[in-house]
Amino acid sequence: MAKFYGCIGFAVTEEIRPGVWEEKIKEKNYFGDLIRNTKRYQTGDGLNDDVNITNEISIVADPFANENSHAMRYVEFMSTKWKINSIEVQYPRLILSIGGVYNG
C-alpha cells in the first residue's frame, strides 16, 4: 500500500460583509494511504480522450476533517486537483473516492 501526503480542499462559507456570504476554499494537508490506484480513458467530444482516475485514499482525519467532511471538494494528487465523489467514514479514518479533474 502506497503512502499519501497531500492537500484537501474544503468549501467553507464566510461572511464577506454583513448579509453577504461567499464560499471559499480552505486547504489542509493530510497523511494517509493510497488504497486503490486505477485510471481509465473516457472518450469525449474532443480530439483527445479524458483521463478519469478511480482512486481511493484513506486519510487519518483530525477533528476539522470529521466535522467538515461534507465540505470536502477535492484532493491534490499527482500535481492535479481531483474531485471527491464519495466519503466513507471508518473512524479515525476517512476513505475518499476520487474521480475526474476538479474545475472549481
- State the low-pLDDT regions, or none: none
**CATH-defined topology:** Thrombin, subunit H
**What is the number of beta strands?**
8
Relative strand content: over 45%
Helix content: under 10%
Q: Give me the Rg, rounded.
A: 15 Å
Identify the strand order in the major beta sheet.
1-2-5-8-7-6
Major β-sheet, in short? Answer: 6 strands, antiparallel, barrel
**Which CATH first-tier class would you pick?**
Mainly Beta
Helix-strand pattern:
EEEEEHEEE
Distance between the termini: 30 Å
Chain-averaged pLDDT: 89
Structure description:
- The protein has 104 residues and is mostly beta strands.
- Helices cover 5% and strands 70% of the residues.
- It contains 1 helix and 8 strands; from the N terminus they run E-E-E-E-E-H-E-E-E.
- The chain has one helix at residues 63-67, and strands spanning 2-17, 20-36, 39-42, 50-53, 55-60, 72-77, 80-90, 93-101.
- The strands form 2 sheets. It has a 6-stranded antiparallel β-barrel with strand order 1-2-5-8-7-6. A two-stranded antiparallel ribbon has the order 3-4.
- The longest helix has 5 residues, at 63-67.
- It starts with a strand and ends with a strand.
